[in-house]
Amino acid sequence: MRLALLFVFFLCVPVFAAQQVEIIELRHRVVEDVLPVLTPLLEPGGAMSGMAGHLVVRTSPANLEELRKVLAVIDRPPRQLRIRVSQSRDAVVRQRDVDVSGRVRIGEGLDIVSQRAPRKGESGVEIHGGGSSVGVYGRDTRRSTQSGADQFVRVMDGSEALIRIGRSLAVPFRQVAVRPGGVRVSEGFVYVDVGQGFYALPRLAGERVNIDIRPFFDSLAGHGLDVETQELSTTITGRLGEWIELGGSSQQGREEAGRLTGAGSRETSDTRSVWLLVDEER
């Protein structure tokens, strides 16, 4: 019915010399995609509209032929892409400790004593003589943790994609409210989402791709319920089939502590990186 009304509209308009009305069926694209491209190419006095996968054009035969040539270029199947995002994290903690233990005689019947047994993983040296014994013990430990996520999603050129993999954690809460009638205690759970994934919007230009990308990576901090979040948002361009570094972060820290019979230090490093690969699926 709506298509018939379009016919009536075009036939009721004064007929310009050498113009004709043509209905063109779109094969792969929708009307909203092609109208902004074709409308500026109409000759003066021409008109174009569309609905339900068809274009209705009133123009001259020569202009119509030009429009068909342009339409043949843009009315093609959208290219299908495979977007892959790789996120990695490398955390290192190094702990160094030195302690002195022993018994030192400084006079008749007077000793200074600081004794303890060597701990597991320590190495050291002990010195004995003159009624005294001194031990120096040291420990150097290094703990490395590596984690990451690798996700991919298939999407058509110019379409949005979102992938998220994770879980919801039930976190208990306790709320105390003081009211005129007394104290009211409420208990329950709230759910916190922890996951990894990304949002992407790719646009092809030949063999290059422009992409709006927002990867995110959540992880639990230690043994508690604190959530560490890594998130990045950017627009980049690159070639199909090539890995592109989106970004990353690097943090270092150092702590030192001294005590009466020893000293210690703790060094930490946390390095994260995010990479992107876009391929065309043929």
From TrEMBL:
Chain ranges passing through the membrane: none
Domain (NolW-like): residue spans on this chain: 21-80
First and last residue of the signal peptide: 1-17
Coiled coil: none
InterPro entries linked to this entry: NolW-like (IPR005644)
Segments for region (Disordered): 247-272
Superkingdom, taxonomy of origin: Bacteria
Keywords of this entry: Signal
Protein name per UniProt: NolW-like domain-containing protein
UniProt source species: Desulfomicrobium baculatum (strain DSM 4028 / VKM B-1378 / X)
